[in-house]
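Batch job 17 of 40 flagged for manual review because the log was empty.
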Amino acid sequence: MAVPDQASASLASWNDTAATKAIVEFVERVTNEGGPDYVPPAERVAVFDNDGTLWCEKPIQIEVGFILKRLAEMAAADVALQDRQPWKAAHERDYAWLGNAITKHYHGDDSDVKVLMAGILRAFAGMTVEEYAAAADEFLHGRHQTIDRKFRECGYLPMIELLRYLEANGFSTFIASGGDRDFMRPVTDEIYGVPAERVIGSSNALTYQEDEQGGTLVYLEQPDVFDDGPIKPVRIWSRIGRRPILAAGNSNGDIPMLRYAGGPSRPALRLLLLHDDADREFEYTAGAEKSLEVAAQEGWTVVSIRQDWANVFTDG
C-alpha cells in the first residue's frame, strides 16, 4: 500500500507504514513555520551513510570489489605478494576474508581491517586524484554479479526518493560514509543527486606536486582519516559546520552519527536501515547487532526493506 498523503508523489516507493509516517511527520514538524519544532532551512541538514544505506554492500562492498581488482593486479605482477594479505585474498578471490574484515571491524576487531587498509595505502600510492577518479569511474560501469545489475543501478530507489523529498522541503543532504570519499565522488551526483562537494568519507593522505599544468594532487602511502564510528560526527562538523537533524545508517559504525543528530536543542530523526529482504536484496544483521539494540532502546526509526519499501531498485 503506497503512502496516501501529499508525500505520495515524492515517496512513491515507500509503503504506508509507521516508518514512512515517522519520516513525513518529522518533515512536517520541522518545516511548520511558527510551530514548536520549526527548524530554519539553513539548519535542516541530513546525513546519510552510503554502503548498505544508499546502495548495496553485499556480498562484499562495491568499493571492496574495486580495491580487490587493484590488489589482484599487483599480486599478478609480483608473485611475492600472493602469500601476503590482503593481496592473497585478492589473488585467490577470497571474498569471505575481505567481507569478514569489514564485519569484524563493526564488532570492534580491527586486526584484519588494519591489514586491508595498509594494502589499500600501498595500492594507490603515487596515483593522481584524476587517475584514481578515472579508475573508479571505469570500475563503476561494471555489474554487480549477485543481483545482476549495473553498479550505477544499485542505489536504493526509496532512499533516492527520500533525498529528493527532503531537498524539496528545504534540507541540505550530505553523504557521510566510511567508504572512500574519492571512490564515491565520480557517481554520487548521477546516482543520488548529491554533488561531490557534499560527500564526506574516508581518505588517504595527499600531497601537492608542481608541474607545468598548474600542479596536481597525488596519494601518499599514508592514511588521512577512516570516517567511521566516533570519527563520523567529527568529520560532519568539520565539513559542514552544522549538526544534522536527520541521520540515516545501517551498521554499528553509524551509531555515533545517529546519536549526534539533533543534539540538546533540535528535534531529530534517526533512521536505521534493516536488511531483511532476501528475495529482493539481502538478509543480514551482521555488523548491525549493536545498532539494532540501541535503536530499540532509544526509539530510533528502523526502516525494514521487506515491510517499508514497495520497490528496492528502479525496476522494482
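Reviewer: the log was empty due to a logging misconfiguration, but the result itself is present. Residues 62-77 form the longest helix (16 residues). Unflagging and moving on to job 18.
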